[in-house]
Fold:
Amino acid sequence: MALKKTERELIFLITSTLITVVVWVGLEVYRVYTKSLPPDGIDSYLSPLEPDLNVEVLDRLEKKQQ
Structure:
């Protein structure tokens, strides 16, 4: 049974999309495994956040918007 033109185009689109997704995921996995840690280690990412708001910065932002 011969495929119609639209069926061939749909198969091509699905195949191209699948290949693109597989390559994309593979590159992201590779990037994560080859990424180096920051010089001060992972602890810099785990440091607690400052709970206090910097009111001066908020005031400057408010003045810039006006």
Q: What stands out?
A: The helical segments are 5-34, 43-46, 55-65. Residues 1-35 form one domain. Residues 5-34 form the longest helix (30 residues). The two ends are 70 Å apart (CA to CA).
